[in-house]
């Protein structure tokens, strides 16, 4: 096989391995949308940073569609001695759960809400993605045992969207170093082949 083709194939394969190893392993799928809760850092300490990643918004698989914004979302403190939480940018923290009207202050949840109800239009583009970053602090123990249930309140063309109300697993991206070394070696090998081929042409 041509050296350039071998190099290109090596790079493509190596990068695909790295991407697979560095991506979250588990996610919650509801109403055609994917919700992924990612432990960004500090899961084994008393304060952890998390990302709620939402994909497939208003896409072909979205069974409700017409979504324009997230009004609020909430988690249970199941498995941890919850102390406090820092909300995402543009949101406020509220103790308690969530209903179709937003955070309602009742139930075994903690909630993040926008200061006012977002507009119901225009709808977000098809297959939009949203990312919300927040932190959680426990009074004792660590966040490694956190097993939350999840609710979310959408705003859009629908009168009331499904609040989801399902367990969500915290995902921890696999480190690239170590497990990802075979892919890294293949990718680097491909780059070396291409570089050598290019050098021969110049000479």
**N-to-C order of helices and strands:** HEEEEEEEEEEEEEH
Provide the β-strand percentage band.
Answer: 35-45%
The CATH class of the largest domain is Mainly Beta
The helix/strand class is: alpha+beta
Description:
21% of the residues lie in helices and 35% in strands. The protein has helices at residues 3-22, 181-202, and strands spanning 28-30, 33-41, 47-57, 67-75, 82-86, 92-95, 98-99, 102-103, 110-113, 128-138, 149-156, 166-167, 170-171. α1 (3-22) runs antiparallel to α2. It contains two helices and 13 strands. A hairpin with a 2-residue loop joins β7 (98-99) and β8 (102-103). Strands 1, 2, 3, 5, 10 and 13 form a six-stranded mixed sheet that branches. It folds into two domains: 1-23 and 174-203; 24-172, Immunoglobulin-like. It is of the alpha+beta class and 203 residues long.
